[in-house]
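hi support,

uploading two proteins for the ticket. first:
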Amino acid sequence: MSTLPETPTSPLASAILEGRAPGPIKLSAARGVLPLSRADLVRVLVHLADEDDAAIRDEAAGTLAAITDDDLVTLVVDPGTSTDVLDHFGGMPGASPAVRSAILANPSTPDDTLRRMIPSLSPAQIDDLLLNQRRLIDTPELLALLELNPASTALQRSRMEEIRRHFHARPEPMHHEPRPAPKAVETAPEPAREEAAVAQGPATEEIEEIVDEEDRVAAQRIMRLTTAEKVKLAFRATREERTILIRDTSRSVQSAVLDCPMLTDQDIEAFAKMRSVSDEVLRTIAGNRNWMKNYRVLFSLTTNPKTPIRVSMNLVAQLNPRDLRYVVVDKNVPEAVRRQARKVIDARNARQGRH
């Protein structure tokens, strides 16, 4: 049976979850006809799906199956959602990719739920979990399981190796295949590896973009940090520090900046305009539906020549007429994107002409 919530939202939900409600009330709840909030109702339904009474159990299962994916995503993306609900849908083989992605991104999702989900994750869902970098740092076992997922891409495996190299000592392999002998570079003495880590950071020409002397000093201070220290700083960085760290060459540092709880819309707008960030940062921003609701972020990504062309071309159609005309004549925008903007303008004009 499900673990009872510590603080039930309503007395009626509490009575059902604690087993104090009579059979008719539980049956009504299983049918979804009680006056409960959406969060309470789903909590109760998950609980009743394990009910001893077959009639109640079947009704609850049917009502759960009727909940739309949009409603489920709204629920399971909320950190305040019951862990029982997150575990139920995380472990459900038929859950949609959108629901699974929301559960992977939720910081409240139990580790046990993630352990069960990881072996069946798709490449896109592996990306979702890699974005939750703090979880993989705090729980090495999850990273070890993720490394065994055969669906991971070469780029994803590189990300995993980077996290392990900087934050975890490698455990004994979880399979019986012989490991290849390490290359000579991997056996370099510790000071050499430390020196290499310290060397990572914004290039000198990028530091020149930081006009304010205080920012320049901060950039020089950050350059002296190891990758692990930069990741820890990124989770609590000031806005100025985030602007410096997002330029770092390490994907772990970049991901930590984008996962910073203090990140603002203004930060994302600024990142979307930068030509000194990696294309991976820009691709990640473009893939975040919440950030892309901000039109200024959309426009900045479309006109940033560093944005991958396929990403920019997919965004062009969402621009307003004035900005489309700007893109057509902006010499800084890649030619393919400018041609796409012209096609969108011509298509819109043709549609208007038919009317």
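and the second one:
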Amino acid sequence: MNARDDVVIVTGALERLAQSCCVLLRENQKSADVAVVSAMPKEAFEGVKNPRDVRATELVYPNENTLGMLRDAGVGLLNCDDEKATKDALARATCVIFAEETPKRLRLRVEETMARVDKGEAPRLRRVVLLSRIGVERRDVDPWKYMNRKTFRGGAPLDDAWAAEEAIRTRAAKNVNAGGKADGFTFTIVRTGELRGNGPTSVVYGDYALTLVDNAFDVRMQDIDVEKGDTFGNDFTKRLSAAGFANRMLTTSRYDVLNAAFSIISTGPVPRERRMGYDVAKGKSPPPISDREIDEQLAPDDGEVERAPDAAPVPT
């Protein structure tokens, strides 16, 4: 990635998956110098009355620590309900990672952004990564049909995730059919299982906000398994691993990740010696999945070509 040219917008940054994407982009040597912008709704910046003291006159800001953590990591902050700021950010963006954890919000954000692309508001956009959900292609069969019912967690989550995918595929196809228009972009869809793990919030909120389940998952499930398409069963995916994989889709030179979909799950438990010394609640987290480990998962089968000749990193 090119520090002078690339600007990455990560949507959904009020949640841990998107925060993980932002922080890891800043920490990874291949992307550390690019501009990273975390997009989140206006509620992230607003104060509320103190819920513990009804007589208090000063507002409290529930997301102040999260915003501070992102600033400290060198991540820019974007109120995506601010029309002017959003237009300015999209005008500069070369890459977008859609990382809302709720499929309904994911669909709305993707459709809104693709509409803006249609209007020419993102002339430099070259690369899109969407964090979708395992099961989208099997949403009419059990057990996915049961999970996708309209009364489940806000209604038909797999339908919403699929609609988000389709919005990106449709817009990308317009670019292909337009005979090399300047606003063309490629995409990669990353399908995750149910999300687990605390991500960078482990250093923000402290013990009381971290679940024992997520603590254990971060430490025990350090490895990943990756397949093309919509595979795997009703599995779990670590937020940091999903973020690391999504980020790698921006820095790899492999041509076969372009306009493709992958499923990623976390595997383990890892051996005891790999777990010793870690305590997520105290800020002692295992290292995120490395680019090398991701590349090994993406290694071509015999006879396949790993990358296009003389390929540059994907965003450029």
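thanks. also noticed: Confidence is low (pLDDT under 50) at residues 177-182, 307-316.
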